[in-house]
Write a structure and sequence with these properties.
Elements (H helix, E strand, L loop, with lengths): L10 H11 L3 H17 L7 H47 L21 H6 L5 H11 L22 H8 L10 H10 L3 E5 L4 H7 L3 E6 L5 E9 L3 E6 L2 E6 H7 E9 L23 H14 L14 H14 L9 H10 L12
Antiparallel strand pairs: 1-6, 2-3, 2-6, 3-4, 4-5
Helix pairs in contact: 1-3, 2-3
Length: about 350
Amino acid sequence: KAGAKRAIFEPGSFAVLFRLTGGVPRLMNLVCHQALVAAYASGKKTVSAKLVRQAAAEILSEKKTTANKKTWLTIAAVLMVGAVVVATTLKFKDIFPALMVTSEAPVAPLEPVKVDAVALAAEPLKTAKEEAAETSLLIQPITDEAAAVVVEAPPAPTANPFTSLLAVWGIDSVDVYSEEELSFIADQQQLRMEKISAVNLSFIEKINRPGIVWVLGENGYLKTYLLSALDAPTVTLQNSQGEADMDRERFSANWNGVYLYLWKPPLGYSAPLTVTGNSGNGLQVNPQVIGWLQQKLQVIDPTSERVISGGRYTPAVAQQILVFQRQQGLVADGILGRETLIRLNQLGGEVIPKLLETD
């Protein structure tokens, strides 16, 4: 670290480095050195996954070019030696034709097969039953010990956690190794990325969305996982090496309390709605979000009355939200914010990925 008191390489850069170098120490040193130089030159304080990829492209392309040159030189040398041998052989044949020995040997004629017609005629014909019995002696059934060995194909590699998080939302993407890339792709798909700290499993259960967690590994470093499912005794974690269950107590002891997840806001939503806004009469106006809200509330409770507010977030609408928040165990502040929207989506018929099967 050369005296640094913080991590120089971002967490997402380690997986990229290992994948591009295959874990070869010499290549890892070269790529890390090049990435550090690039970070210094661009004025960055940390090395991101993007810088590692750029450094690897420069280092590995140079090694590939050198290897290709050596390969072509070897092929050219072999062809030159082969040409010399052929030319020497042809010249020798022209000068000393009598010494050239052909490799073709005369083929001996086949001797005719003699058949004793008298003995053959005297041999009695076999019945079909006798022929079947003789044939059965030649054909032996395959026993269990002699059965063919079935070779199972190795399991397909699992995507990294960021790419897997997009996949559970139905988004097919190339490998994603940084939070910046994840946020960019999520925005294009009308999703929001949120990263929160100092939370516990109870909070994650309320959010009820798959997300990224960082768990302390046996080597003392934090590893990135996708938290894909929750049940009473365990959590399900997934990374590029596969999927595994971990009991909640062990997970809580090794998790750093940071959670990153995606959620889907309604169209037209940009910020929380409150009874104090920036419109002329002090009320926020957003007909698209207010219409969506009234529809969700009626899906959740068909007996509820639709509030006519002209697209404004009035005290009557805020009271609806306040009642809903109390019913769901949320912070009852009457503000239409992220956690309230997530719960409305959850109960209002939206097809969204969840950690828990039931709410």
